[in-house]
Records
---
Amino acid sequence: MTISDERIESATVAALPQAVRQLSINLNHWYVAALSSEVKAQPVSITLWEQAIALYRDRQGKVHALEDRCPHRQVKLSEGKVLGDELECAYHGWRFDGSGRCTAVPYLAENQKLPNCQIRRYPVREQDGFIWVFPGEVEKAMAVQPLAIPEWDDLNAIGSVAPMQCEAHYSFLIENLMDMYHGHLHDRYQAWADPKLEGLEETESFVHAHYQAQSYYKVNKIWSVVQLWFPAFRQLHPEPLDVSYLYPHWSATLGEDFKIYCLLCPVNATQTRAYLLHFTSLKAFPKLQRHPEWFRRRMKQTFFGSAKFLLDNLIRQDVKMIEQEQQSFLQHPERRNYELNRAIASVQRLMQQQAWAEERE
Ligand code: FES
Ligand SMILES: [Fe+2]
């Protein structure tokens, strides 16, 4: 469905019923669990929509995702350690392989059999710098793909990543990300000004919002990077600003130069973890592309994280507002918002449809 510009600009819509703040998620998608670099020799515990999951790497470096629960006494398996290709529980040393099967009990008597216990194994993939977990029905995991991040390995894109943790339902974060009118909040960290919603496309799997805006950053000189730190070097100029809710994740492009992603790991109904990624394109510098690959790779690594301080500050400002929205909702769930941006109603519909699809399946 495409909504005309006229309707977008003239409408004042009330938010959908506050049931959206209590929505579940559609489990049949790939969610981000961790950065690849966060899962090393020791197991890592994450929570994805109330499911505790232990991530670990085997001897080949392959990542496994198991239910984070030892079936012996129900303690966290992630408290233990990796032995070869297996995970050993800290308490009594029972071991589990990547399929979740118990393979050893250190004090098993000769006349005893291994307990026939099995913990849940989650489909897991390592792609574009992240570990992705599929918490839904295993047979559906092949039918969908994790969100592609082609810039991760693109030598023409300099990346930065910042983790994000908000004590709020994921819907507040998605609405924040889709509503470009909140640039007001970001003061000297803002990348854009004067947004105007000019188009909206909504389907059962995504919402695209097209804004026209003024961008603060112009990447056309080798020293353009200083604009990140010194506002005096920023040059306001018109750029398209396209933001997309690609359920369950989000991405945005500002002109030719910037791409941003927000990869979500909803923890529960009042907690959301996410990673914000920012890429600056080097396509404006064709001479750079004539350098050998090793040089460009080194350059990509050297400048990795150069926009992290910017992301951290944007996150700090956004999280404060999002958490206040959550607290306000908990205290006064009967209150309704006034909403002028039609993109919000669109993403609320998509969140509802996806959560309900999960319940119907
Ligand atoms: S609780 Fe895990 S081995 Fe006993
Ligand atoms: Fe923001």
---
Amino acid sequence: MSERPCHVAILIVGFHNSKDVLNCLCALALATPKPSFDIFICENGGKEAFQELNNVLTTAHGPCNIHSGHQALPRFSAGGKFAEVKCLSLKGRATSVWVARATENLGYAGAINVWLNRLQTIADWDGLWILNPDTEPYPDALANLVDRAITCNKGMISSTIVPEGLSDFVHNRALRWKKVSGSTEAIGFQTSLRAPCDSNAVEAIMDSPSGASMYVTRECVEHIGPMDDRFFLYFEDVDWGIRAKKFGLGYASQSIVPHKGGTTIGKLSASRKIRSELAVYLESRNRILFCKKHFKWYCASVSVASVAYAFLYLFAGSPRNFKIAIEGFLAAWSGEAGPPPDSYDGHLRAIFFNIPTALYRKTKLAISLAHYCGQVVWRAALSILGRPPLPHLTILYYHGVQNSLRFEFARQMNSLAATANVIPADFEGTLPSDKINVSITFDDAFASVVENALPELACHSLHSTIFVPVRVVGREPNWVVDDQSSTFQQVVMTTEQLKALSPTLVAIGSHGLLHTHLSEESKSQAEDEIRRSRKELQDIVEREVNLFAFPYGDYSQHLIGLCKSAGYSHVFTTDAANVQTTSFVRGRIKVEPSDSQIEFFLKIRGAYNWGAIKRKMLRVKR
Ligand SMILES: [Zn+2]
């Protein structure tokens, strides 16, 4: 924390609940003068809801003034996922209130992330306070959160949530995840607000603040990245909390936040029957998604518990909600994530359709596992014979790393940092033999790599190489992106982003001009793609470019010759192989942030390189 006064950005997501937002802002208007703050609201409910919200906030008795000319000019404007942005101010305070209208319902995490993305370009905030709109925090709630973050050096802080109107009892002090049953426990549920509470004891067992009030320091946000928008609604808070654990979770007992929803989030209640279908569906689906992400070993018990929870709807007299809960459960197992579908039906069918793909992947995994075991035995035998095998290099290639998979990517980098020597993909010379040797590369130079991958690599000072389709810089890809990350809109990095890449940690290579199949091009066109892309890329990034990766891994001996004569020092294919550092042509293995831990373990050890044996055999036959 710096010495200058702390400034906080308060983030609120609205959805057709202008009255709640109004009450929340009225409460915030009474907050203690320090720390200072600005408020950022995203209305997910469309044009009319946005209009209504603005009207309610700016009536004569409302908490806001329409932004008047004497204040600083608006820094945020419409564009991207915001259709409209208005700037208001909180009466009697130097607080700006930015109200944005989302182009569509982005979900809770999605809406937070859009503001977060915008705020990242601004230097004047030290922490974020994520508040539910149906809260009315006490005047010193924020001051206490900030105080706990600073004095105890914590990254993410929880408030004391009390049910609205019943302020003598606590709803929760923080949340704790119960791994076996797949449910959250509200720590301190129904304890007295006046009874003494040991904050350290809460901090020792908490897994996350409640999403109703989470304070996150800027440093922590920069380390853990944005919220996971695959959850859309429900569980994104616990997910963020668990990810923030290594930066310290804190609890500020004196930060008291009355919460309307707090009365209904409780355990069993009559509300089961009247719960909205969306809530039933997403809660059931996301429980499994969350478990698959963080506690894979507990998936079986959580699945059993999920079906049991579904039956509770039946017992509460709602067969409809029972069916929807089951569909949500099946949806998670069919691989669904993100916004809910238009219809809640048909997930069982989707699971059956997915079986062939899943089987194919599992078969590959089984072969690789067998291959790995064979390798281990073979190496041991060679060592016993006094001829230890030569170390080799395994080169990985990724495409983009989307927001929602940042956590998984970070986990992969942690394991690389711990178990491998990560060296540049064009390394020449003698490889160390103390650990496995791995290089990291990214094809297509997507902006998501700058946003989500490079910060994680920088944490461990890991080197990587990025291959740029030179004439697509700053634009959407003009080719079909056929990997799992294709479901989100990718853009290629801009010239500025490429120039800003650290020369010591990131090497830049060419990926052709327009990302075409080079073997299908005429001789002169292919030559252009190879030669000109090098020249143009050198002009863009103002450094020497010596590496080339074939788009789609499409290459031939002729194309390799062209690359040699164009002056490249090494070229990269997509044929998985154990690379020797004397070779000009280097094979790579495809990895995805969504690869399971066992798949990643095997890939970085070259166990998936049995494809090379298959290719060799085919060549012999020919
Ligand atoms: Zn590519």
